[in-house]
Write a structure and sequence with these properties.
Layout (H helix, E strand, L loop, with lengths): L5 H14 L1 H4 L1 E12 L5 E6 L4 E6 L1 H4 L11 E11 L4 E11 L2 H18 L16 E6 L4 H13 L4 E6 L7 H13 L5 E6 L13 H9 L4 E5 L7 H5 L2 E2 L3 H8 L3 H40 L1 H7 L1 H6 L2 H49 L2 H6 L4 E4 L16 E6 L2 E6 L12
Parallel strand pairs: 3-5, 6-7, 6-8, 8-9, 9-10
Antiparallel strand pairs: 1-2, 1-4, 2-3, 4-5, 11-12, 12-13
Helix pairs in contact: 5-9, 6-7, 10-13
Length: about 425
């Protein structure tokens, strides 16, 4: 009977592993544990799943290919060769390549695209368009159902009841989502809107992935309309957030940024009107004071006053001197009358100019009045209890409605309520 040494047995088994085609070119998926970075540059770790574990080593030469730092708990795919370590008689996996699997792989793709687009300058502030302060027409690219669109509509209409919202019902998740979002951005960009909101509610990185696609980023970057990105929750970040002109932490916050408070604007106009009226009153008072001062000055310089002071001297003069003084007095009176006429003409010109400015201001304020809009054919609809009707869902057949127009109200009964259906774009 032949007796073998331990080294011979280990060498024999190692040769079996080396000659095995599968074991020499194998890819294994598992969870990282006991990961250690050695001072030599090698990385030692264990790859495990529910049923077992295998020792792995990545030598310093292959470590240069690693694009991320290995940490316990990561799910990874490793490629390499399984062989026997002869000194201990144990087998292990020599790793050549290593990459994150599942969500980790998506995150790695996210970082790679973010770096590429940043190097192209697509995130630079120089390309960011300002969000208008007073937007009357707001575009929305999101799903037609869900909390995101409801939040945007509720917030925007609460702040400005007269805002016009244009919705493109896009797919925001799954197959065809990125193409649908790009079509929505480009279609709304042609409509001359003031601002556009692009986004959706929260979810996993897989759910939000459509907003990490390069085609979506380019559509946002190339749009002429300022775009607010509102994807997911406050802690979620996508490529769309970085390339958009403004990022909002939530869809509701995006609606806050895009719209303005109509009541506050009305208060501001009221304050401007009061300030104009106050300034006009002050200027009129100043002009009146100047006119009064001119009158007093004319009175002090009047030839009659001079004649009164010299009356005793004139009494002593002869008839010839009296005639001369009377002619001079007549000339002085005529000059004073011409001066008074010139001042009155100047006052009329100034008052006419102020009256014209007041009329222009009044016309502008009248153009902004909600009553003016009602006079142009718009109305306000409520049910028989005075509740505002904003949707066909708020009425039923046979219900009574009140339509308030400029000069009264119209009472009508609902014959039918038909809901518009939105297309998929």
């Amino acid at each position: 009977m032949q007796v073998y040494s331990v080294t011979q047995i280990n060498t024999y088994i190692k040769n079996l592993f080396v000659r095995d085609f599968v074991l020499s070119r194998i890819t294994v998926r598992g969870e990282v544990s006991n990961c250690k970075y050695h001072s030599s540059g090698h990385i030692y770790f264990t790859l495990k799943d529910r049923g077992g574990a295998i020792s792995c080593v990545m030598f310093s030469g292959q470590r240069e290919r690693l694009t991320f730092r290995l940490e316990d708990g990561q799910e990874i795919d490793v490629s390499g060769q399984i062989t026997v370590y002869e000194k201990s008689g144990t087998y292990q996996l020599y790793v050549r390549d290593c990459r994150l699997s599942g969500a980790g792989e998506l995150y790695e793709r996210f970082l790679q695209l973010k770096t590429e687009l940043a190097e192209m300058g697509m995130f630079d502030e120089i390309y960011k368009k300002p969000i208008p302060r007073y937007s009357r027409r707001i575009g929305i690219v999101t799903a037609s159902t869900g909390a995101a669109v409801r939040d945007i509509i509720n917030v925007a209409t609460r702040r400005d009841p007269y805002v016009e919202l244009v919705l493109y019902p896009a797919r925001v998740q799954g197959e065809g989502a990125k193409e649908s979002i790009v079509r929505g951005i480009r279609q709304l960009d042609k409509m001359g809107l003031d601002v556009m909101i692009v986004g959706r509610g929260g979810g996993s990185i897989e759910d939000l992935w459509a907003f990490n696609e390069e085609c979506v980023a380019r559509a946002i970057f190339e749009a002429e309309t300022p775009i607010i990105s509102a994807v997911g929750h406050e802690t979620d970040f996508t490529i769309a957030d970085f390339v958009a002109d403004r990022r909002a932490p939530t869809p509701s916050a995006a609606a806050e940024l895009a719209s303005f408070e109509y009541d506050v604007l009305e208060e501001q106009f009221g304050a401007y009107r009061s300030a104009l009226e106050k300034e006009m009153t002050q200027r009129l008072q100043l002009l009146k004071a100047r006119v009064n001062a001119d009158k007093e000055r004319l009175q002090r310089l009047s030839p009659r006053s001079v004649l009164q002071n010299r009356r005793q001297q004139l009494d002593a003069m002869k008839g010839s001197m009296r005639q001369l003084i009377e002619r001079k007095t007549e000339r002085y009176l005529q000059k004073a009358e011409r001066t008074a006429d010139a001042l009155r003409q100047r006052m009329r010109g100034v008052l006419e100019d102020r009256r014209h400015r007041l009329q222009v201001t009044a016309v502008r304020l009248d153009g902004l009045s909600p009553l003016k809009k009602m006079g142009g054919g718009y109305g306000y609809i409520t049910d028989d209890r005075g509740k505002s009707i904003r949707s066909v869902q708020d009425v039923r057949k046979g219900a009574r409605m009140m339509t308030y127009v400029r000069d009264g109200r119209i009472v009508s009964d609902v014959v039918a309520a038909e809901e518009w259906s939105y297309g998929s774009g």
